[in-house]
Amino acid sequence: MAALSLGAVIAQPASACFAVQVENQTDRPLELIWRAEGCGGIFDGHEEVCHHKAVSGNGSESYDYPWIKTGPVVIIRDSHKSDKGESYTEWSYTYHDGGFRDSTFKGTPPHCDEHYTIQFSQVDWLSR
User: Fold this and answer.
1) Which of 25, 27, 89, 100 would you call most buried, defined as having the most Cβ atoms within 10 angstroms of its Cβ?
2) Whole-angstrom Cα distance, residue 3 to residue 7?
3) Coil, strand or helix at 122
């Protein structure tokens, strides 16, 4: 019976481990890029892209990271605002101290079944 139970666990489809929602509290359309080690998508020269989505002003989008993805990074990009010689401006949010923050620290949530929200405000947008 134990072998059957183990087989049933192994045969289950991969499901979401944790979710990260971005609430765009500005009136500007933005690009959202969810990245992590272990994701295989390629976008903008980054191999670790899991998902890419546009979000309207005052809109929100969410992505469920699958199991076994580490070092998640959520990039918020404004393609209409240049910064430091680039044709766009980016803000990178990583897991740190129990939530996703504008940080370069690359942590991983300690367990699954969590939902995190990034509230990107006009103050954040004006910071760069």
Assistant:
1) 100
2) 6
3) helix
Please tell me the total count of domains within the chain: 1
Residue 93 inside a domain? The answer is yes
Structure confidence by residue, pLDDT tens digits, 75-116: 999 988 876 677 889 999 999 989 999 988 889 999 899 999
CB 35 within 8 A of CB 45: no
- CA gap 87, 72 in Å, rounded: 24
Full domain range(s) for residue 51: 15-126
DSSP reduced 3-state for 3: helix
Question: Could you report the per-residue pLDDT of 41-83, keeping only the tens digit for each?
Answer: 766 666 789 999 999 999 999 999 999 899 999 999 998 887 6
Count CB neighbours of 112 within 10 A.
Answer: 12
